[in-house]
Each structure stands twice: as structure tokens, then as C-alpha cells.
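DM from R.C. (forwarded with permission)

"hey, sorry to bug you on a friday — could you get me a structure for this? deadline for the figure draft is monday and I only need the backbone to look sensible"
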Amino acid sequence: MPATTARTSTTKTATTPAKTTKKEETVAAPAAETKTTKAAAAPVAAPAPVEPVEAADPVDGESSDVSPLQAETLAAIEQTRSLMTILQNHLKTLRSVYANQKRLERDNKRLDKKSKRSRENRASNGNKGLQQLKPVYTAEMRTFFENNKTLTDNDGQLIVDNLTYDSDHLLVSRKQALKLVTSYIRFHKLQDETNKRKINMDSTLQSLFPELCAVKDKKGKVVQEENCHYNTLMKALSRHFTQ
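My reply, with the result:
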């Protein structure tokens, strides 16, 4: 019996709802009303106006709202870039041309120096031979020098200051001989009027250069024309310096 009584009292206690006191209800009500009043009293913010966005038509990477001044500026910038590219290409070409020109100038200078040395060597060797005193073996050339030793060159200088002899022969250079012959031609005006390279031989020149004279046969017909020219004199002088 005691156990049954205990289970009954426990069941009653569990199923009986909790009672709320009037004091708790009175306190809870004003709190709920206060929250509701504050929520009602708070102003609702109006949504911000949304401005319509116009679609941009891209033109060369720019929007359609670019001003004319900006468009001109951009065009000028593009043109400047193009000009800079062209100028850079021209500068490369000019540098290449300049380098080639310098190389050619160096090559030309090298060739000029080489040819100048060659000419100087040839002239030096030739002048040594022409200026060397050699014996005159013909009486005609010896007489010619002795009779015309007062002749001068184009500068008015005596061609032969003093005649030099060895034991048997007159000693002169081929250069002196050529100068004396040309001075003799100029002094006696033997240069041909129509052909300035030709020399009209007189008896003295005919005796010096018989191989250049005109040759006639027994009937008087010319079989060898006179061939005394300025370019034939040096070769014709050789026989006077050889035995």
C-alpha cells in the first residue's frame, strides 16, 4: 500500500501544469509592449535612387562619351607612336650605312697608303737610276752638252752647272740629258704647231736621234716617217749611254 500511494502522487505531480503567478505576467507584458513600440517607432530608410547606366559602345577601346578633344589627343598619341617607330627604323638604317661608310673609308685609306708606298718605291728606284751619273759614249751627245750647257729648265735654273769628266768620257745623268734636249726644243721652237706631241727635228736632233728621222729610198720615197715625239726621246737617249 505505501508503494502504490507514492506512484499515484508522483503521477499527479508530473501531469499538473506549472502555474504562473500574476506578478510574473504583469512584468512580462510591459517588456513585450516596449519592444513592439520601439520597433514601430523606428523610421524605415527609403531605398537610394538607382541611376540608369547607359551601355557604352566601345570605339578603339574607349567609351562613346569621349570628348572631341580627347579623341584628337588619342589620335595624336597614336600618330606620334607611329612616327617614333618609323624614326627608329630610319636610325637603324642610318647606323648601318654609317658603319659601312666608315669601313669603306678605312679600306680606301689603307689602299691609298699601300699604293702611295708602291709609287714612292718605284719613283725612288727610277729616280736613282735616272739621276746617277753615267759616261756618255757618243761624240754627238758630248758635243751637244758642251754647246748647250747654258740652257735652263722651266724654272730658269741651269740644267748642268759644271760638266764632269772622267779619264775618257763626259759624265751626265739621263735626267740631265732629257732636260737638256727638251730645253733645246723649247728654245729653238721645234714643237709642231698642229700636234704638240710631235717635234720637228733640225740637224742637231737628227744627229742625236737618227733612228727617229724620216728615211727615204733612192727614188726619194719616204719609207719611214719621222717619229720624233716627246714619248720617244727617253728610249732614243739609251744608245748614248751604252757601248
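R.C.: lifesaver. Residues 134-241 form a domain with the MDM2 fold (CATH 1.10.245.10).
me: no worries. The longest helix spans residues 68-131.
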